[in-house]
Design goal:
Blueprint lengths: L3 E2 L24 E3 L4 H10 L14 E4 L8 E8 L5 E11 L26 H24 L4 H7 L11 E5 L3 E8 L5 E9 L4 E4 L4 E2 L5 H4 L10 H13 L8 H20 L5 H20 L8 H13 L1 H10 L6 H6 L2 H4 L10 H12 L6 E10 L26 E9 L5 E9 L4 H18 L2 E8 L2 H10 L7 E4 L2 E11 L4
Helix pairs in contact: 6-7, 8-9, 12-13, 13-14
Bound molecules: zinc ion (ZN).
């Protein structure tokens, strides 16, 4: 026998009334009273029927589905798939949820029916909702608190806001700007990074030396590059100090050398501004020599300045052994074969220059690399005095004093330099150790150097020298006896060759 509904006036599962067609509708599920005593009492309190007590409830008594809110009635089976999704299939017989309570009594006065209490949520869900609500409130509050209205409020609230800038940041607050400075305090205190918030709230950023492009903070401050929120401040601080803090790499000897060369250049520049005198010239020469020595320490391809070449050659002529000792032990100097090449144009008897001559090849290549206008040069003649007390013996250095067939000591070095008329380009054309410079020998030498330089591609406009006797005699010979300011160019009759003689110029 199907269970009958115990609610008064309910026809659920009772037989069809004689005068109605209510047959379909009155077939309903009837649920047993709960076994749990507390819940059973709860049901009985709700059901408007006298005489029902926890003790007189039998297994055949129940409450039909019409008295339960739909949410209490479970009509489907729910299955979990292995992938975490669920699917449902209808139950043969509906069941009640654990918290179901009858609340609907259609055939009784309406006041006896009550809306079921809203379903209680799981404590975890309620906690999550409360947290979300708080978070929402906090966010709203935070967004309002976060906005910086203007510079005055920014400056006055800066200390009370307790914005965490990071330990290395120092604030300097001025009337029209606020400066944030990041200082490296580990070593010598230095400013690594800084930024300035101006009166219009724009932000200017600096590394340890220079102002940087503001676009580097566009991702944080937007295109206007303005500080609008307090929360942007610690972000600028951490980002900017990370950007500017270059990882400390150990300094190599080469790094130190480059510092030294930088300082030497400053020194040379400063010495140029001193009053002109001989001591200064000597000082500048020494500094330049030292500078080149430092530069040569780490240069792969050794390029020697004309001054260094002349100095090297002078030492070489004074004493070959001293030169070799200096070159091997402490100074970076040209190889002796390079120095010998500088004299090669004088030793060639037939006046033909070939590509076997290393110095000629060098001059030719150098000339080709120069623009046309810089190939116009003057030839500078200079006699460099070699201390006669230094013994320079020929021996295996035979013929080194070019104008002597004997192995005699050279007393001077004759330097032939070329200098571009229109640029600072300067080079050694030839060097010649001399003992007692004799006029016709000197004249021949000058002609050989002229030929060397012109064949290499340069155009010699003039010859310059100081006005000592040997130079004057040589010029006179070029002029066929009577000294003149210019003569037809010995190598090109279309051009003229000018002479200048004056005080020493190198
Ligand atoms: Zn009923």
């Amino acid at each position: 026998m199907p269970r009958k509904c115990s609610v008064i006036g309910c026809r659920g599962n009772y037989r069809k009334r004689k005068n109605t067609d209510d047959e379909v509708n009155n077939h309903v599920s009837v649920f047993r009273f709960p076994k749990d005593e507390l819940r059973r009492k709860e049901w009985l309190r709700k059901i408007p029927q006298e005489g029902l007590t926890p003790d007189n409830i039998t297994d055949n008594m129940g409450v039909c589905e019409q008295h339960f809110d739909a949410r209490f009635i479970i009509r489907d089976h729910t299955f979990n798939r292995p992938d975490g999704s669920t699917f449902k299939s209808p139950r043969m017989l509906p069941v009640l949820s654990d918290d179901a309570i009858p609340t609907l009594f259609p055939n009784t006065p309406s006041y006896l029916s009550t809306a079921p209490a809203p379903k209680r949520k799981h404590p975890d869900d309620r906690r999550a909702e409360a947290t979300a609500r708080d978070e929402q409130l906090f966010q709203t509050w935070h967004v309002e608190e976060d906005i910086i209205s203007d510079f005055d409020s920014f400056r006055s609230n800066l200390s009370s806001k307790a914005v965490d800038l990071g330990s290395d940041w120092i604030l300097v607050s001025k009337e029209h700007f606020c400066l944030f400075v990041n200082i490296d305090s580990c070593n010598c205190p230095t400013v690594i990074a800084s930024f300035k918030v101006c009166e219009d709230m724009t932000v200017l950023i600096f590394d340890n030396k220079l102002q940087r492009n503001s676009s580097e903070l566009t991702w944080l401050l937007g295109d206007a590059n303005k500080l609008t929120r307090w929360s942007q401040l610690p972000n600028i601080c951490s980002h900017w100090s990370n950007t500017c803090r270059v990882p400390v790499k150990p300094e190599t000897v080469e790094d130190h050398v480059s510092v030294v060369t930088g300082r030497l250049k400053q020194l040379i520049h400063a010495s140029k501004n001193d009053d002109q005198n001989d001591e200064k010239t000597t000082l500048e020469f020494r500094l330049n020599f030292l500078l080149q020595q430092f530069e040569l320490l780490y240069s792969v391809q050794k390029r020697y300045s004309p001054e260094c070449m002349v100095t090297a050659f002078t030492i070489f002529c004074s004493s070959r052994s001293t030169y070799c000792y200096l070159r091997e032990s402490c100074l970076t100097l040209p190889h002796t074969s390079t120095l010998r090449n500088l004299t090669s144009c004088f030793s060639q008897c037939c006046q033909t220059l070939t590509d076997d001559d290393a110095h000629f090849v060098y001059l030719k290549h150098k000339c080709m690399a120069l623009p046309e206008c810089e190939r116009l040069v003057v030839l500078l003649l200079d006699e460099i005095y070699v201390r006669p007390k230094v013994t320079y013996k020929g021996g295996n250095l035979q013929g080194f004093a070019e104008n002597s067939t004997d192995s005699v000591q050279a007393t001077t070095v004759q330097a032939y330099m070329i200098a571009s008329v229109l640029s600072k380009h300067k080079d050694v054309a030839a060097l010649q150790p001399i003992k007692n410079l004799e006029m016709s020998f000197f004249h021949d030498s000058v002609m050989k150097v002229l030929s060397l330089v012109e064949t290499a591609g340069y155009r010699v406009l003039a010859v310059l020298s100081d006005n000592n006797r040997a130079n004057r005699n040589m010029f006179e010979k070029m002029c066929d006896g009577i000294l003149q300011p210019s003569v037809p160019h010995p190598l090109d009759s279309e051009r003229r060759l000018l002479f200048f003689y004056s005080t020493p110029f190198i």
